[in-house]
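ok so heres the complex, two chains, lmk if somethin looks off
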Amino acid sequence: MAQTATIPKSLWDGGRKPFKATYGKLMMWFFLMSDAFTFSTLLAVYGVIRFASGTPWANPELVFTHFPGLYELFHIEAPLAFVGLMTFILIASSVTMVLAVEAGHRMDQKAVEKYMLWTILGGVAFLSCQAYEWYHFIIGTHGAHHIAGAIHLLDGTVAQFMPGDGGLQIMNGVDHLGVNLMAPENTALFQQLVPAASLLPDGSVNPEVIISGANLTVNQYAQNPSFANLFFFITGFHGTHVASGVFLNYLIYKWTKNGELQRRGHYEMVEKVGLYWHFVDLVWVFVFTFFYLV
Amino acid sequence: MSDTHHNAHSKGYDNDQSPYTHPDIHTHHDEAAGVTTRKKIWQVFWILFILTAIEFVIAFTVPRGAFRNITYILMTLVKAFYIVGTFMHLKDEVKSLIMTILIPLTFVLWLILALLIEGGFYGKGWFLGL
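and the predicted structre for the whole thing:
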């Protein structure tokens, strides 16, 4: 039945598409806009907690230093290199996604299948990278070159220390009152704040009291536990988006493979899910800047 | 009665003649247009790649501070412009849709700015300078 001819052409009877976009695409845009609010709020909360924290924040260059293989085999640290690779993977998968959309416009089923597979591969690779990064964030960097761990001081402060033969070399050693414990005039105060049990007779740090890695109450990277909490929540929330994106991409791949989308006469589903996937990439661009660079 | 109704609906979807998909809106293009689109896609890929590479160089060469942070934020916005404009094809939508998406987000910019200033007030960090 030629229903196209019966569609009313007036503005008020549903005859014209609002914004000249289809229902599905429009709703995807509105959903993404609301999701953008959510992520903006999370990043704004990150900013406000960081600025209000009063104690030194973690330095991402000293936190994210593991690169698979380099670290395990040679103990070489590559600051930010791995997160750079993750960014590259996500941008590349965004490219293959938009290539799938383009192939859909030409009704080229084989090309859509191929590019959807590459996109799914990129998504899975990103999630695997994130699992590796979380693992090392949680277990910490024993004997790493930058931050060996942290200890509790008597006033409740967490003080990071560096490895080496110099015993307890505190970095970021600012306590909750804002006293810089590294300043020479505060050496005596600092000595008082270090619990006796934290040091071995030779002046080195007692391994039993070392805070290593991160959990929800304390972490070795920053005074403020919020640093780890925000890391878990923001990258975790983004990772959840990636995971559901991979699932949606798989559905689209399946519907392309079995010819469903070809039968419909258009590949708009690829476009709609593509919008979501690009959005996930977009969010990562912001997370990358505000969490790893600034 | 309701059975007939249901059948009519599913038939409509199968033939892609449901009222929710307007035939005029499906954007098909030929191979020649595809070549142009693909060229543009790869162009944007290289822009994003190079901008990210420059951000890395900055991370290890430029000292922390307001200048570095503002540079990062501007570069991020440029990247966002290309992702949203080209990859998400927002540039190809009608102006009213572009504005519907972008105008509410300007309020978010204000929220972020306001919260950062407040945070800097309560803490020791100072705005944009870490």
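quick notes: Chain A touches chain B through 67 residues (CB under 8 Å). thats all i got rn
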